[in-house]
Write a structure and sequence with these properties.
330 residues; alpha/beta; 2-enoyl-CoA Hydratase, Chain A, domain 1; eight-stranded mixed β-sheet; globular
């Protein structure tokens, strides 16, 4: 099968986050009532419906006013749709590429060629995994140099055949291990970023969870960057920032607030181009709906880019990043 060599685990029950305690209690009551109804043949549908509506309203209220740190927790939820979930829905004929032709294969950063709603495209993305087995197989989405060199292979292929590139970002950062440094991690990231800058084809990037450091920028140097509503994008993790500035990782909530890492902050700062809404309670509560929202948004953007505009793609992408940090006139 197409995805057989990649580690998947289906999780049926939603894991509640700390700030969802009240919702978790309601869901437990609903579950108990359903069990009572099934065993005692008692018709308590009306009460269940009331509690379900109350839980839904509670979720809406909670997710309307999430703090930056709470958004970080949602973005990291292991049940959120991941790269392979999106690929499965967008292309039945997807062909994965393996290896960097230098050292090894890296399963943290995947990519290949396929059709997106009928259009031939190159797709690249980070896969974290959602179980012990799959997380180890994909190294928690932290790519080694081989992953970024594989991405360069794919970018070069897209450039050669005039194929648009779509990237899915979900990583806490590139893998910082000694072996990665020995094999040129920083150079691999820089070269991958440069390959994006020099590409003559359109690049669309979506941050679907964590957008961490250069590990994210290496495949998010795009013409158009979108973020899911409860994802985040930052130069360093809140814990890393807290350890440096506050001398303790426990100041992670303060760091997250200061970093301006939420989709809403970054849209306001014009770092990203669009915020994609998530189902109530986060993408992990309705994977199918979240995936459709993302794929439809990508489809809209791909339709904007017309063949024959190769010079514009490269020029506009370079201009987009060069303007970051400029002080607005007036």
């Amino acid at each position: 099968m197409l995805f057989a060599k990649y580690a998947f685990t289906t999780i049926m029950e939603v894991r509640f986050l700390d700030f969802e305690k009240q919702v978790a209690e309601l869901e437990k009551r609903i579950s108990d009532l359903r069990g009572l109804s099934n065993t005692k043949e008692v018709n308590i549908t009306s009460e269940i419906n009331k509690l379900e509506q109350k839980a839904q309203n509670m979720l809406k209220k909670i997710y309307k006013d999430l703090t930056p740190w709470q958004k970080v927790q949602v973005a990291r939820h292991e049940e959120r749709p991941q790269f392979l979930d999106y690929v499965k829905e967008m292309a039945g004929d997807f062909e994965f590429f393996a290896g960097d032709r230098t050292f090894a294969e890296d399963l943290a950063l995947l990519g290949g060629v396929g059709h997106f709603y009928g259009r031939p495209v190159v797709v690249i993305g980070q896969q974290k995994g959602n179980s012990t087995e799959s997380r180890l197989a994909h190294n928690f989405g932290m790519a080694r140099p081989e992953g970024y060199r594989k991405a360069q292979r794919l970018i070069g292929l897209a450039d050669k055949f005039g194929l648009p590139i779509v990237t899915f970002v979900n990583t806490s950062g590139a893998y910082p291990g000694i072996e990665s440094e020995e094999r040129g991690q920083s150079a691999a990231i820089a070269s991958c970023t440069l390959a994006c800058v020099r590409a003559n084809v359109p690049i669309i990037s979506v941050i679907i969870g964590e957008g961490g450091s250069g590990g994210a920028v290496a495949i998010a140097t795009a013409n158009y960057v979108m973020m899911l509503e409860h994802s985040f994008y930052s130069v360093i993790s809140p814990e890393g920032c807290a350890s440096i500035l506050w001398k303790t990782a426990k100041a992670n909530a303060s760091a997250a607030a200061e970093q301006k890492l939420t989709a809403q902050d970054l849209y306001r700062l014009r770092i990203i181009d669009e915020i994609l809404p998530e189902p109530v309670g986060g993408a992990h509560r309705d994977k199918a709906a979240a995936i459709k929202i993302v794929l439809d948004a990508i489809d809209r953007q791909l339709a904007r880019f017309q063949p024959g505009e190769e010079a514009n793609f490269k020029r506009d992408r370079a201009a987009r990043f060069l303007k970051f940090g400029e002080k607005e006139a007036g």
